[in-house]
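pipeline: protein-struct stage 2 | run 1193 | acetate--CoA ligase
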Amino acid sequence: MTETVDMIVKPDSVRRSARMPDYDRARRTFSWAAARAEMSGLPNGRGLNIAHEAVDRHAAVRGDRTALRVLGADGTTTDVTYAELRRRTNRFANALGALGVARGERVFTLLPRVLDLYVAALGTLKAGGVLCPLFSAFGPEPVAERLRLGEGRVLVTTPRLHARRVRPVRAALPALRHVLLAGDPADGPDDGEEGLTSLAALLDAVDDDFAIPPTDPEDPALLHFTSGTTGTPKGAVHVHDAVVAHHATARAALDLGPDDVFWCTADPGWVTGTSYGIIAPLTHGATLLVDEREFDAERWYDVLAGQRVTVWYTAPTALRLLVRHGEAAVARHDLSALRHVASVGEPLDAEVVRWSAEVLGVPVHDNWWQTETGAIMISNFAAEDIRPGSMGRPLPGIEAAVLERGPDGRAWRADGHVRPVRPGVDGELALRAGWPSMFRGYLHQEERYAASFAEGWYLTGDVVRRDADGWYWFAGRADDVIKTAGHLVGPFEVESVLMAHPAVAEAAVIGKPDPVAGELVKAFVTLRPGWTPDASLHDELLSYGRQRLGSVAPRELAVDPHLPHTRSGKILRRLLRARELGLPEGDLSTVETS
């Protein structure tokens, strides 16, 4: 099904205007050494620092260029130039010094998308601290767990979030020395609680001159916790050298440059919202749009049109919600400035790619990467035709392979070796280790980190297939793959077929134990407005699946208007399976609540 020859063919004018107009030539000529040479480096050869590449080098030559445009929750718009962002981040770096925060200590943020978050993130990197952003919708226990695992010394949050998320667990966090409360000083600490400091008052008391200390490219810079959907969250450590990959991949995969207005809708509490929602666009000298408010379809179109967004990076879930909102809303807005749309976070079904091309006027470019990879690894590119439903092809500088899997679903190593499979066969996606943003470890989990590699390959845990032309197609997580009647079924393939039916807005597929087949395929679907979940539609959807998938089609189907998602938009199949089978639901800290 997925290796379709159906393609979205782009005009020659689009190919010529792309920042990477020739994929094959780019792969032949690319080197990470050359990409690293595009970074300015700290003055006098003092190393490489992410914040210098994102802020200070632009402030020196284009200081009046808008770095951040913040769309406030109150309807106001605030522009912050690169020169002003340099001053603000210098103050934050000096504030950490005044608190006695040492280099290498971890600074956590628990903030909504407000200006203070971006200042704290970049100021921490300037000072040589390790930034660990947390999602602001986390409850007290997920916050405490990550602060404990990461041995957080400083937390930047708001009075409201502190009262609801931190105060209930503060006694269990003896390593946490300082809680800096962002926002209006009038909203600061008023109860005399020890260890609370007004961030505004602290910044007012320090200077706005700061010299970034020597920074080795291998110095730790970022700590990103995985979602923790199974077991204890893993803390992936990234270094300052990651900025080389952030910069190079933003140009190659997102077609991003210095004159773009860029909007990444991912929350900075997740890796996408840090790598591409803070660092990458600023390294290019672009204008980064920051929206404090939550999703609303009509307002999002207002933002795209009113702010003349040129490059937009968002999630499949958001795009599917826009599809459900209807085409009339698009017609009311001038989206002529929008020239590149990309998507990440979960596989993107072909129907949304086609909808975007027809309705928005530009197709969505799906891409693939993980918290551990730190940057985009596989993508559809601006100058290339799109095969709807495909992840795309590896970026220049990235070597990918599909490896044979053993009975446990992971890369086969029974004889001590991994083996590639032929095109068209499912296997585990692996990447040749060594790119700059590759994670350098799981915090305090050396054995878990070592188990992620085999014979120089990073084993991603994702099951994919590569077609004969080199495009990659997602099948599922290794632990999601369904084994039914001797077949290995990738959930995404089945879900994509179901979502091609006009009644289906979203679909999720799990394996359900069966005494004959081992597992049978069960589907859960959310319907588009106007469709009634009656017996007739139920039978029609099962028949639709059988006609297109044959023996691996769903045997059971249920309509569920509220499929469980993580807060970053991924459907939680393992939670559906647990509820279906009456199993423990596990860590629910990242589950979206309504």
